From TrEMBL:
<keyword id="KW-0805">Transcription regulation</keyword>
<keyword id="KW-0678">Repressor</keyword>
<dbReference type="InterPro" id="IPR036390">
    <property type="entry name" value="WH_DNA-bd_sf"/>
</dbReference>
<keyword id="KW-0346">Stress response</keyword>
<protein>
    <submittedName>
        <fullName>Heat-inducible transcription repressor</fullName>
    </submittedName>
</protein>
<keyword id="KW-0804">Transcription</keyword>
<dbReference type="GO" id="GO:0045892">
    <property type="term" value="P:negative regulation of DNA-templated transcription"/>
</dbReference>
<dbReference type="InterPro" id="IPR036388">
    <property type="entry name" value="WH-like_DNA-bd_sf"/>
</dbReference>
<dbReference type="InterPro" id="IPR002571">
    <property type="entry name" value="HrcA"/>
</dbReference>
<dbReference type="GO" id="GO:0003677">
    <property type="term" value="F:DNA binding"/>
</dbReference>
Amino acid sequence: MSIKRELLIGIIEEYIKSKEPIGSEFLKSRQNLSISSATIRNYFKVLEKEGALFQPHISSGRIPTNATLYAYWKDVLQYVCQSDVVITAAKLQSLSSHYGVYCIVIPKDDNRLESVINTHGYLILQFSRGETLIQYSEALSRFLESFMLADIHDILKVANEVGAGELKRKLMALLQVDSEEHCFQCGSEYISTIAQSNAAQYLNAIQGRTLLSCSNGIYFEGIVSNGHLAIIHDVLYINAKTQSTYQARMMCIGDLLCDYKSFYAELGCSNFA
């Protein structure tokens, strides 16, 4: 790793911890750096010109830009989406409170399309756990026939990609009803700023629509407002009362300055870049 990269990572990590601008002397002592403070300040100037850092006022230390934090978290958390994280409600609630992260968990049980019935100008879509009604069209009928026995999440993903709006709304409604009794969430107060700036994003998150309609991955825009991060991935959820374990999906949302690395480390994930 180059000195410039090492300094940038150091600034990001210290800023996430302190939430205060980082000066050269502070960084040198905290990171046990062998180079001089003057050399560090020269690197600061280079990083500032490159748009990685900015200085709130002339006598202060430096702060990483949002773009820098986006790149940092995308790199650090890229393998979390591929990890088998095991969670319980109590553990998640404790960590949510400690790190200021909103979390929502929804079971991933199979709910497959078992039949499509054409009747009186409508199509009845019968799934393993429920059914829905949608207006008939020949194109939609052919589309659905190609997805027989497919999981509802896979159909929803394709419907979203091809812009099948009515089908997407029907599947979302069916999924929401199916998930209401099995959904666990905590920390909604930590995304109250999203509610203030974009009420639709906030409601989509806490009502499960965002998690149900999005693929696993890390998001910085679209489903969250500026300055926030969302990460979606599979988990193994343990029911503390029954000690049964089942597959689920989890979405975590928080400010860019939340310590997601420590949050996931305490969940038992060590798969960081």
